[in-house]
Write a structure and sequence with these properties.
Layout (H helix, E strand, L loop, with lengths): L12 H37 L1 H6 L1 H30 L5 H6 L1 E5 L8 H16 L7 H4 L6 H6 L1 E5 H30 L2 H4 L1
Antiparallel strand pairs: 1-2
Length: 194
C-alpha cells in the first residue's frame, strides 16, 4: 500500500476523473498550439530567408511540411509532458489549472525522470491509438489508466497532496524523535529521553 493511500480520504472519483479529462484537454490544446506556432515560425523563416529554394520546390516543400507537422507534433507531445511533469514535479499546465498533481506511488515527494518519461510515452501510446486507450480509466473501477500503470504514478488532487505532505512530514518527525530518544537511551541519558 502506498504512502498516500494510507491516509487519504476517499476523494470523489467522478470529480477527479472529470478533472483529469479536463487537464488532458487543456494540455492537448497547448501542445497543438505550440506545434502550430513552431511550424508557422519555421515556414515564415524559410519563405523569408530561403525564398529562391522555396519557390523552386514548393510542391516538395508542401509534402515535407506535412511530414514535418506530424513529427513536430509527436516530439512536442512527448517533450511537453516529460518536461512539465519532471521539472514541475508532477504538474502540467492543465493539472495546475485544475488542481491536480502526478505523484510516484513509492515516493510521493519526488517524481523521478524515468517516471515522467514513462508517463510521457504512455500518453503518446494512448494518443496514437486514436485516444482509445484513454478510455481505460472510465471503464476501470480504480480509474487508473495506462500512464498510471506503466510509470508507477497516480494522479491526486491538490487537497490530497496537502494532506499527504502533512502526513509524510509528521511521520518523518516521529521517526526522527524516536531515533533521537533511542540515541539518548543508548548513550546512557535515560533521564533526558523521557
Amino acid at each position: 500500500m502506498n504512502e498516500v493511500a494510507k491516509f487519504t480520504p476517499l476523494f470523489k472519483k467522478e470529480n477527479l476523473l472529470k478533472k483529469r479529462i479536463g487537464a488532458f484537454s487543456i494540455d492537448l490544446f497547448a501542445i497543438i498550439f505550440a506545434t502550430k506556432g513552431m511550424l508557422v515560425s519555421y515556414s515564415l523563416f524559410m519563405k523569408k530567408f530561403a525564398l529562391p529554394v522555396y519557390m523552386q520546390a514548393q510542391s516538395d516543400w508542401f509534402n515535407a511540411y506535412n511530414k514535418m507537422e506530424v513529427s513536430a507534433l509527436l516530439l512536442t507531445f512527448v517533450s511537453y509532458f516529460f518536461l512539465s511533469l519532471y521539472l514541475s514535479q508532477g504538474k502540467t499546465l492543465g493539472k495546475t489549472i485544475l488542481g491536480l498533481k502526478v505523484i510516484a506511488k513509492n515516493n510521493p515527494g519526488e517524481l523521478y525522470w524515468w517516471e515522467a518519461f514513462a508517463r510521457s510515452f504512455s500518453y503518446l501510446t494512448c494518443y496514437m491509438t486514436g485516444l482509445f486507450l484513454f478510455m481505460i480509466p472510465i471503464l476501470n473501477p480504480s480509474q487508473k489508466g495506462l500512464p498510471d500503470w506503466v510509470s508507477g504514478t497516480q494522479v491526486i488532487s491538490d487537497e490530497e497532496w496537502k494532506q499527504a505532505e502533512f502526513f509524510i512530514r509528521s511521520q518523518n518527525e516521529l521517526k526522527t524523535k524516536k531515533f533521537q530518544t533511542l540515541e539518548l537511551l543508548i548513550s546512557g541519558h535515560e533521564d533526558l529521553a523521557a
